[in-house]
Write a structure and sequence with these properties.
Keywords: Heme, Iron, Metal-binding, Monooxygenase, Oxidoreductase. This protein is α+β, with helices and mostly antiparallel strands and 515 residues long. It has two domains: 180 residues, no CATH class; 286 residues, Cytochrome P450 (Cytochrome p450). The chain contains 21 helices and nine strands. It binds protoporphyrin IX containing FE. The site of protoporphyrin IX containing FE has 26 residues, from helix 9, helix 15 and helix 21.
Amino acid sequence: MEAVLRRSIGLVPLPPHPPARASNGTVARLNFTQTHWQSWQFSVCAPVVALASFSSRSSRVARGRCRVHAAASNKTVANKLSLPPGKPGNAFLDLLKYVKDPDGFIATQVKNYGPVFQMNYFGRKTVIVGGADGVLGFTSAEKEITKSALPDTFSQLHTAYGTMNQAGKIHKSSRVNLISAALCEEAFDAFLPVIRRRCVDFLDSLESRGTFFPAQEFKDWSVALFAELFTGIPFDDEMKRLLYTYNEGLYGLVPLKLPFTAFGRGFKAKDELVKRLRKQIEDLKRTGQIEEPQYAALRRLMKSKDENGEPWSMDHVATSAMIMVWGAYVELASLLADAIYLTASYPEVREKAFAEASGAPAATQSELKKLRYLQGILDETLRVKPPSGGGFRLAEEDLEIAGYRIPKGFVVSADPRITNMDPELHPDPLSFNPDRFVECPATSLPKGTWFPGGIGLHGCPGIPLAMLISKVFLADFVQRFKNWQPTSASKGKEGWVTIPIRILGDKYEMEVTKR
Ligand code: HEM
């Protein structure tokens, strides 16, 4: 395995991103107000400083001479190795620091200990793995860490049908079913007209209002869109409310099913939402309406079979559809809101995006793929404002990753934020520079250094759809508006939500100026 990994790394071209240049040839830097700058500095400067300290290690990777320590199934070997550096601190204090500034917390750890380190996360001994060596070690060790290490409240509400709770054959079969129902290019062809119509509706409304609350409105818009794409069933206000209550329950800290706990309310909301979806699906079947084109993805989902070849029950179908909508909406809202937020400060980025979008057709997937500058904006947004870290797995065996021993029972997470800010890979990493991804697309970055949706067996299957929707949206947005900025009341008041998904606060408002 080690030889295979070494070979694969040797074959990968490892070009770092070229220095960040704005269209006028100057180095593009974030052009924030003082308050923006302070919050930016707090969350992003620290990672850069910290990452410089391990960039010499990364540069070994970049020259194709990295040492990859594949998973050791041999416990005797692993036992001779030392634990990753780091001092898991007080669980509560660590959590507070992390919640206040996730990037800064991770960066300080990287600065002190390097890209693979121990920390205390939600009271559990956790090893964060970053840098190509560590991340490739993580993916090769995955057989021993497919079991998710999600908090109890999350796990219970995610249900046995949720892929993040699954492992082995059951997990593989669920992924195949979900991808072939709704997350493949064939499905996207049918989704495109719906995406386009919903973008136009949103932008018509925005044009008439002139101001909007990006985070709040993108969340609502995303729920409505994904419900239509995945189920064909529009979620009414009550169904949306149930989904949001379910979402809050997933992150409830008290795992007691009581009417006054977020967890208890989440459970009730989930049961009610699944009941409503089941009823609607059964009605569609009974009346024959299910054969209509808007239910194509739902029909495919209903043809799913489990790992033993048994058809999915109606409960399975309805629960999976609900989880799909839930799994997609905040992440998409975060990406869209951050793309609009970041580009607000860069007139030259907006004009380049406009030139590309207005100069090329964007009706089909292949035409959309040619919009490389818009792709650059989205990738750069995910790099500087990643919606989340990686997924959490449980080490079911003693493991060896990047030359360290990870004892059985530890939680392990491969974190994309560490390489996102590596100056060896992304020179001048503080700058927001979509051109870096035009000159060197994300697909040509070294293996294990770019994974905005997590990596490995549970890596996000929805990123291509999120990109497709965001590109259609952005192409329309830049053609419709020439300028956008926070309203004077919102300047410097981003109110970032940092966990579980980073997103602007609901009250952050922006205004747009029509072209
Ligand atoms: C920018 C947008 C998105 C980001 C940043 C993102 C991020 C992530 C991350 C970090 C994970 C955990 C990976 C892991 O455990 O290693 C994940 C899993 C997942 N995501 Fe996404 N996601 C996005 C959009 C979507 C969309 C649009 C869907 C559509 C349904 C989706 C569906 C899923 C599913 C089903 C999983 C679980 C996969 C599994 O357990 O095998 N995501 N995503």
